[in-house]
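Final report, Chapter 2: Outcomes

The project's central promise was a pipeline that accepts a single protein chain and returns its three-dimensional structure in a standardized token representation, suitable for archiving and comparison. That pipeline is now operational. To close this chapter, we reproduce one record exactly as it appears in the project archive, with the input sequence first and the structure output second.
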Amino acid sequence: MIHRFLRSQDAGWPIALLFVGLPIWWVLGVWQIMFFVMAIPMAVHLMKQRLVHMPRGFGMWMVWLCWLAIGVLVIQVDAPGAVPGTQMSRYLTFGYRFCWYLIITIVALYVANTRRLVTSERLARSIAWLFVMMVGGGMLGVLVPELSLPSALQMVLPSSVASQPFVHDLVHIQTAQIQNFLGYDEARPSAPFAYTNEWGLTTAVSLPFFVASWSRGSTLRKTAMLVILGLGLFTIVSSLNRGMWAAVAAMGAFLVIRAASKGHFKLLFSSGMLLAGVAAVLMFSSLGDLVLARFDNPHSNEGRTNLGLLSVNSTLEGSPLVGFGSTRDVAGNFKSIAGGATDACPKCEPPPLGTQGQLWLVIFGAGLIGLALYLGFMLRQIVQNLRATSAEGTAALCALIALLITMPVYNAVGVGLYVGFIGIGLLAREHPAELPAVSQVLRPFRQHALTVLVIAIAGGAAGLGVHVVKGAPIEATQRIFVPAADLVGVPGVRTLSLDGEARIATSVPVVRAVADELDLPEQHVRSALSIGAESNSRVLILRYAGADERDAILGVETAAEEYLRLRTELIAQSNESVVARYSAREEALDDVYQDISKLTETARGESLWGTVTKIRRERVEVADVLLGTNDLPAGQVISAATPRRTNSELTIRVTTGLGLGALAGLALVLVYDRYLGRIGLRPVSRLGIDIPVVASVSAADVPRTLEAVRAYLPVAGVLADPLSPRARRMAGALNAHLRAGDHRGARVLLVIDRRSRTGTLRRAYERHLASGVYPVGLIMCTDSRSREPNADTRSRSKAS
């Protein structure tokens, strides 16, 4: 089968080879690497094209890529709520994700530009094979969930490289994730991925292409489709993957609404029967119990919500417009500021900020502007293609809906988004009109690149100016060792956690002490004072951001001093309460002990020896408590106040200014190119050259245009604006209708349309004159109904 896809005349072989050869790539350990490899022949094919066309609205995606690229400038800045400091590995993470965005861009352009070389049905069939492979991997995960083997690539890689978690997940062979959030071990299919969520998203986006491809054909194929769908239902439910369930439900709802709106009652009936069959399977099998058990055990809801909110809050507080470029490690965990992974609890460390959902990744990595660009592009692709009629187009719409629905729970960067962009390329084929060419779309931006660059630099300078005006605070840090202590006056209860200690360190008395020392408003001090902790320790980290080094050091030292004084006072109060109560208890025990001791000396006092022993033990416990109150573990400063001028604010402000300036420059060029620099409805006044309009007619009205042209015969020919497909078609039709005797002389007519650029036509006019060819009239192609030239045009035509 594979050799058929490798035929030179089949342009779809890179995509087919990816999905049909999946088992081989998986065993070799190069499954996801092959997406990068197969992008090379696709890019080569595109570079050989004279014109590379792109889906409508694809320019917004290109702007998104540019906006994402500037995130590399802020990749080392500190994010609120994240572990401070720099990590070179962030560049690798950023580069990996950005390369994925590039290859999905390539595949969308590749699919859109090969409609004459490979059919949409064949491409959909390739994605259908991907779904078959996902179901096969799911069955492996259910039947042999503990299968774990090194791939061929993993065995040849150095152990120091293969053992890295990122590399291990890419090249290792495993079939399932075994988790016990239902109260018992349950295998969740993941093959050929490391994680069930990746498997779930890929299965969801490939499902509609499988149905669209296999529902047409022989009875055997349709029967096989039903069998595979049955196995797929089993694996989908077994995955306990609620995000995938929601995606499948959303796609089904979309198909039902679409069928009802178009009156496709046969499809409605088939959908109803399928839904009834699924409901019956769930109701009369153990799969239904599994679904109910999953909903009864939300498991990850709280963690996902906390991580998403923390990612959004960090972005809004630190870098709302451009984000932070890449993910960051969370400071502490959601239970404690000192929380972290341990040998006993390796999962106590939360996932990085910006993960666990494409929505959070886009917000944290590219800011609110990046989110607007990403969502705007995806929504536009769905809305502008709602009229797609082919089965492949409908499947592509379903895949895009699945990507949108799962944005809060799935990171889509990878195979899932790759399939979605194949769908965008297929949808571009649905448009009967010629697609815009990449070179034509980019031409005005290349011509005015200097303008965009100047405005971007001006924006960066404005950001620098804002920074100079507002300044950058200097942050001083001091560490305090906080021993466990009883602050509630009840011995034996759990000591106050570091989170409770942090609340004391940021309490009103501490804030007021710093405000008095620095003569600043309490609200300002409260925002400048922050608390952290070293993971799995009793070390508090106090930070204070001051206007200069003196204020920063004085602020953090005052906060530490007041915190320790307040803690000492609380411990003393607690000890006073304990001493008072336990001293009274000790006296009472002494009295009881003396009385009972006298009774034990009598003949009938032998039975009281057990009570005496118990009282003695209690007296020892009380004495220990009283002895412990002599120690006052208030805490100890273990590091001097260390000031540090952070460049995070400077980097964020300048980068934001650069980005906003570049966007403003692009918008200015776009407005000029679309409106100010176009011919519009008044070509003569816009061109500034002495040449009349012969006719202003619809591009399809060739007979009416010929009538106007005959008044200017003979002519050497009819020329067209080379950048206008409509004008080129009109010029070709007119030249074909003119008789041989009409083609003579040095006069020519020019065909333009309302979107023709004035600069291009002026240069063409001057070039024709220089070569001895004389343009004597313009033919304006319009989208509206044909209309006669106005009086001024007719008079000028007669005069010429």
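Archive annotation: Confidence is low (pLDDT under 50) at residues 5-9, 784-800.
This record, like all others produced under the grant, will remain available to the consortium after the project formally closes.
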